[in-house]
Design a protein that fits this description.
With 112 residues, the chain is mainly alpha-helical. It has four helices and no strands. The chain has one domain. The longest helix has 27 residues. 21% of the residues are buried. The model has no long low-confidence stretch (mean pLDDT 91).
Length: 112
Amino acid sequence: MIATQSTALDVDRRDRLGWLAAVALFVGGDMVTTAGGLAVGAVESNPVALTAIETVGLWPAMLLLKATVLGLVGLLWACSAQRYRAAAPVTLACWGAAVVANNSLIVAEVAA
């Protein structure tokens, strides 16, 4: 049997799917539903996000905040043992799904 040497940052299928879900939900989904909600009259309730939006504008603030969180979770992912690594992006994806669901409910309520 031939053994292959693994490197510290091997990315397996679970990692790729986790990161894809995290980016789609936490980044894309939250940004779209937040922008949609603000467009129909909802109010940002996160004080950090609200301050950033008021300071630099909606899209730059969201990109900066998302990049910061992705960077921190990416660091956690890189420092984790291989067998636990997928938990970092999957947790972020689950959080993103919850945020998208909450934002969608708020948009539906405000738009009605």
